[in-house]
Every structure is written in C-alpha cells, then in structure tokens.
Amino acid sequence: MYGVIVCSECRKARGVSLSSKSTQCTHCGAKLDVRTAKIMFKSEDQAAIREAMGIINAAVVGREDEFEAAISKLQEKAAPKDGILEYADEEARIVEAAMKVPDWPDRYLIVARELSRKGSFTREEYQEMVERMKGPFDADEVLDQMLGSGMIFSPKEGHYQVA
Ligand SMILES: [Zn+2]
Question: Is the pLDDT of residue 73 over 90?
Fold first, then answer.
C-alpha cells in the first residue's frame, strides 16, 4: 500500500510505501517519519498516488476549497474500478467536526448526519466512528435511541439514515 504524506518542513506532498518507517523529502531533504505522518491518501495504485500528490500540492499552495472536491472526484473515478482507493482522512474529518460541538448527543447526531451524506450507513460504520470519539455511550445504544425518537430511520435491513 502506498500513501501520500506532506513534508512537515516545506509542505510538498510525496508518495511513500506505507511499510517504510521513514523517508527523506526529495524537495528540501527533511527526514520524515512515515509512522507518525498524516496519511492524506492511500492506494495500491501508483498512478493514483501521483495524481493525488498533484492535487495535494495544489491544495497546500492555497486552493484548499478545491482540495476536497478534487480528492473525492479522484476517489469516485477509481473506486468502482478496483475498490482499493480510499480517502484516508474522511473518518478523521467527521470525528473532528463532531468534537467541535460541546454536547455528546449533538456529536452522535453529527456523525450520523455526516455518514448519511453518501446515502445510508451500517451499524458497523457507525460503531467505528463512535469508538474513535471515545464517548460515554456505545454505538448500539445511541443508534437504537435515535431510531426510537425518529431522528434516523432504516431504509433497509441493517442500514440507517438521518431523517
Ligand atoms: Zn520538504
């Protein structure tokens, strides 16, 4: 698996093999720790990695608004073909958005709402996000409560969506 990381010194994106421990920035020579670096994008496909690097380099020079759209377009384009591309930071982005509000009930709802953007979500997907937030309730409890109060509904067996 390959990934794209951004140099902590010069902000240039570079592709790395995710099995390597460290790498050197080809632009400024800084030593980068792959294990602690934020992985912006992951793929088995080196062409997709190069394309993602281009997009990320464009984004760090000040076109942040185009970054998300470009990444999701890249993901859409590649995902149906082989299913191996993933936007590594999507889950982190949702958790971050949820943790910005002060109350746990709102946080749980924000996660459900964000996951509903792509249609419905599964109990497992919700569980994974709730575990990342390390909140006071477990995912099953929260989902059942939201179902009971009509905040979410189940469009089909095992799938949920914000009403
Ligand atoms: Zn650098």
Answer: no
- Full DSSP string of 10-32: T--EEEEETT-SEEE-TTT--EE
Q: Tell me the C-alpha distance between 17 and 102, whole Å.
A: 38
Q: What is the mean pLDDT of the chain?
A: 82
CA of 26 to the centre of ligand 1 (A): 7
Q: Compute, in angstroms, the gap from residue 28 CA to the centroid of ligand 1.
A: 4
Q: Could you tell me the distance, in angstroms and rounded to a whole number, from the CA of residue 130 to the centre of ligand 1?
A: 35
Domain containing 29: what range? 2-82
Distance from Cα 125 to the centre of ligand 1, integer Å? 35
Domain boundary residue, one of 44, 59, 82: 82
Last residue of a domain, one of 82, 107, 125: 82
